[in-house]
């Protein structure tokens, strides 16, 4: 009974390296497969595609790093009992080489992502300005239409008698202030155009203020979004590069010394 317990307790530690190696291999291969599938369809020349792919690679980068570390840890635990092999036949060499390659990928991804985000920000700001200009043009046309409509209404009211104006006021179609204004125009028709010009200027000033505020909000929102993306993905890429290169280069150096 005692011998069975001892053999069982000895077999568990012996399984740990195998479990770590298998778990690390599965995690790493699954992560690499995921990284190859997500960018489909491949559009290497498309700037937004590059931004999305690098973001996905950074978001998932910790998974293959953990897989490689588990794989190497399994070999490290069992290494003392392992048979001697040439460097090219040692699975640890390929794991360390993969870590080094991934580290290089993340190093290159850092400046590429910052460049793409900067270019995307410029394009987005230009699009916001263009949309604001188009909106301003359309609203200016509406203002011109509104002013012309008011001109025609004033012309019609100028032909109305005082009793008719009072009836319009009583019926709620005109305010007393508007009725008094019409009476002023009747007394001096030359005041109509300056009045309409002032209304047009007021509407245009209000329009420019609203469009300017909307443009600034859109630009600030886009700048904040791109800044967050640049910092999060950029710093994450650098950290992953350090992690992969540390594992890869340290592992390769140790393997050469074996």
Describe the structure.
- The chain is mostly helical.
- The protein has one domain.
- The chain has 7 helices and no strands.
- α2 (47-60) packs across α4 (91-158), α3 runs parallel beside α7 and α4 runs antiparallel to α7 (192-257).
- The longest helix is centred in the middle third of the chain and has 68 residues, at 91-158.
- The two termini are 42 Å apart.
- The model is unreliable at 1-9 (pLDDT under 50).
Keywords, separated by commas or semicolons:
single chain, 258 residues, rod-shaped, disordered N terminus
Summarize the structure.
This protein has 258 residues and is mainly alpha-helical. Helices cover 86% and strands 0% of the residues. It has one domain.
Produce the secondary structure layout.
Blueprint: H1 2-37, H2 47-60, H3 62-78, H4 91-158, H5 162-170, H6 176-187, H7 192-257
Helix pairs in contact: 1-3, 2-4, 2-7, 3-4, 3-7, 4-7
Mean pLDDT: 83
Radius of gyration in whole Å, from Cα? 37 Å
Number of structural units classed as domains: 1
H/I helix tally? 7
The major sheet is characterized as: none
Unreliable runs = 1-9
What share of the residues lie within helices?
over 70%
The backbone outline, from C-alpha atoms, is rod-shaped
First-last Cα distance: 42 Å
Decide which structural class fits the backbone: mainly alpha
Order of helix and strand elements from N to C terminus = HHHHHHH
- Count every beta strand, where a strand is a DSSP E run of 2 or more residues: 0
Q: How would you name the oligomeric state of the polypeptide chains in this document?
A: single chain
Proportion of residues in extended strands: under 5%
